[in-house]
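Duplicate of #3305? Posting structure anyway:
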């Protein structure tokens, strides 16, 4: 697969220290979070990289979905995208990720919602970046 260069319209800057038990912050200070492992039992509250990835993927996917819906004269304004990001071991023993995106569009029937979800999966930059690298499933929920 040939990597296509981009002409950036926006670049996010963030730094992490301390890994999963550390801290992450955007350079503008808007994002400033304590990190903990998913199964943190030390009583420290924080987020983890999988939650951050899930949030970013869900938001990006919804933007693609609403843009496509609008271009097709469909209503997806009140849609919800839920991204479930799993961390687990691959057969090789290395850690990997898997994603399930659940799309709910109350104003549309399941067929129309599925059609828009598949189109969004083709357009969303997160979907394009993960395609062929991790298992991503797109489902239409109720």
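Output from current build:
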């Amino acid at each position: 697969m040939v990597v296509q260069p981009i002409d950036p319209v926006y670049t996010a800057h963030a730094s992490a220290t301390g890994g999963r038990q550390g801290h992450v912050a955007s350079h503008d200070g808007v994002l400033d979070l304590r990190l903990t492992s998913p199964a943190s039992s030390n009583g420290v509250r924080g987020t983890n990289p999988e939650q951050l990835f899930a949030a970013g993927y869900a938001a990006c996917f919804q933007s693609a979905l609403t843009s496509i819906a609008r271009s097709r004269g469909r209503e997806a304004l009140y849609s919800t995208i839920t991204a479930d990001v799993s961390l687990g071991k691959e057969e090789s023993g290395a850690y990997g990720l898997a994603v399930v995106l659940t799309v709910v569009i109350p104003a549309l029937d399941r067929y129309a919602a599925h059609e828009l979800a598949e189109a969004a999966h083709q357009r969303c930059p997160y979907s394009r970046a993960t395609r062929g690298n991790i298992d991503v499933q797109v489902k239409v929920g109720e």
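Confirmed duplicate; merging threads. Helices lie at 49-71, 110-123, 125-130. The beta strands are 14-17, 23-26, 32-34, 80-89, 95-104, 135-140.
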